[in-house]
Amino acid sequence: MVLDLRLSRAVLAWLTGAGLAVSGAVFQGILRNPLADPFTLGVSSGAAFGASLAITLGLSGGFWAGIGVLPPAALAGALGALFAVLALARAAGGFGRETLVLAGIVVSTFLSALISLVKALDEESVAGIVFWILGSFQGRGWPHAALLAPYLLPACALAFVHARDLDLLSLGETQARLLGLDAARVRLTLLVAASLAAGATVAVAGVIGFVGLMVPHAVRMVSGAEHRPLLVNSALLGGTLLLWSDALARTILPGGAELPVGVVTALLGGPFFCVLLGRRNRRTA
Amino acid sequence: MIRLHGLRAGYGGREVLRGVDLDLGPGEMVGLLGPNGSGKTTLLLAMAGILAPMAGTVVLGGRDAAALKPRERARRAASLPQRAEATFDLAVETLVLLGRYPYISLLGGYGPDDRAAADAALAEAGAGEFRGRLAGSLSGGEFTRVLLARALAQAAGMQPPVLLLDEAFAALDLARRMAVSELLAAKARAGALVISAIHDLNLAAQFCGRLVFLKHGKVALDGPTAEVFTATNLSDIYETPVAVAPHPVTGAPQAFPVPAGAHRPGAPAGS
Fold first, then answer.
1. Rounded to two decimals, what is the model's pTM?
2. Nearest residue of chain B to residue A183 (CA atoms)
3. Which of A171, A172, A179 sits opposite B154 (nearest CB)?
4. Which of A170, A199, B138, B260 has its CB surrounded by the most CB atoms within 10 Å?
5. Of A171, A178, A225, the CB nearest to B74
6. What are the strands of the beta sheet with B2-11, ordered from one edge?
């Protein structure tokens, strides 16, 4: 029983880490922006708003379908935010990368304001909302993995199939099209798939930062920017990183209390990234 | 091969090409000349079929380019783009193999033929020695040769090859300019259509049999080099005095811009 709990939590943590890292690699390649991450199109704010609403309405205690109301509410928020970003970008003239990033910022900012409003109106819910947003695998298990998998696995498969297209897109739209890629269609498909995967991870585990931003950079420094190895290695490193981060989050505090896993990833990741950056500088010097 | 009829094209409602008619056939080496902003790059993108015309048509290998699928377009014309920025650093070999992208399926990888084409293209472009390096570690001229190799790999197997080159020479040193020009001229003699936007007038006059001058988005002049490359024409198009004299060895016409107020030593000023 305990073993099954541990195993399900470990599998979920690994899948989440792998999904965030793959999603981050896709976002950075398509938007040609090293600072892009899986939440660039606003899915984390959407999910957080959905969860905040559920918490303040007192729905968070339920055990509907074995997972409670929070994950579906967060997932609905993520999907709504993604839909809003796409609609906004379309109205603003198209799915160019600047338009998409700006639409993501607009929707994220608006949703963050709404979350603040919820917190201001219902002070009792603040602790719950803050803890949920920081991200944790506490009490998560197989039902959460079952909610995540239908979004995560197709997105990762799609990204891998389009790995060479991502190489092309990272060269810019003109070159990609000169070499025969239907750039607009592939870019939109992959961004939506990566956002859905990232939104699903937020729905089951909260907003876990750092993994999606830094893991692809770390992999590029070691195995290069070509997307086929980048996606595979990002999945492996992202999954492993989050698995160990969760193990630390569970055990580092005395007395059985847990740290939010997002805090651990940030604490682990910062120095790790510094080391890699230093190594790269030494090699090019 | 490439036929443009009443072509108007531009970006976001701004018209850059204002009615271009051209008919370019296999075996031609065409120099695309004209002042900055005259529409050379736009014309090349339209010829490659990736810039939808606002009016008129682009016919690429007998088919309306607007009706072709992206891969079909890329199998009919190979391009060397002018501004090639890369955010993440790909290996040279990966970059050149992407020239074979229009020929492979989504799930299939590169076959032996594709690798052979990439190898041959790297050797032809004089970039074989860079194949294991990262693109970001190359100089401007070295990177241009890698992009040329990619265009040659893309053109391999086209019947006949069509090469659209945008400022392929700007970053190259003197010796490389000659080597690449001779390579392209040989391709044209073997039946390829080579269209090269170029700022070096003398290089164009030396190697191109036909020159097309653009100005303000229209074809200002189009014809055999010997006929159109004259002092009067060049002075008109560039709006600065230009003298033309034969190359001392080859006899090809060469242009010499004349500084304001300059005169030949010993000759009376203004004559």
1. 0.90
2. B70
3. A179
4. A199
5. A178
6. B14-24, B2-11, B55-60, B63-64
What is chain A's pLDDT, residue by residue, as a tens digit (285 residues)?
678 888 999 999 999 999 999 999 999 999 888 788 888 888 999 999 998 988 888 776 655 556 677 888 888 999 999 999 999 998 987 778 888 889 999 999 999 999 999 889 888 888 888 888 888 888 888 888 988 999 999 999 999 999 999 999 999 889 999 999 999 899 989 998 999 899 899 989 988 988 998 899 989 988 889 999 999 999 999 999 999 999 999 888 887 788 889 889 888 877 877 877 776 665 544
Tell me what pLDDT residue B271 has. Answer: 43
Tokens of A232: 């595979």
Look up residue B10 and give its amino acid. Answer: G
- The ipTM assigned to this model is 0.92
Kindly determine whether residue A174 and residue B83, on different chains, have CB atoms separated by under 8 Å: yes
pLDDT of amino acid A135: 87
Closest chain A residue to B79 measured between Cα atoms? Answer: A178
Q: Are B184 and B194 in contact (CB under 8 A)?
A: yes
Domain boundaries, chain A: 2-284
Put simply, the answer to whether A164 touches B101 (Cβ < 8 Å) is yes
Residue A175: closest C-alpha in chain B: B81
Q: Give CA–CA dist B248/B238, Å, rounded.
A: 24
C-alpha A167/C-alpha B196 separation (Å) is: 26
Q: How far apart are CA A44 and CA A195, in angstroms?
A: 9
Residue B36: CB partners within 8 Å, gap ≥ 6? none
Question: What structural domains and CATH numbers belong to chain B?
Answer: 1-77+159-271 (3.40.50.300), 85-157 (no CATH)
Q: B88 vs A172: CB contact, 8 Å cut-off?
A: no
Query: Inter-chain contact B81–A174, Cβ cutoff 8 Å?
Result: yes
CA distance A213 to B156: 39
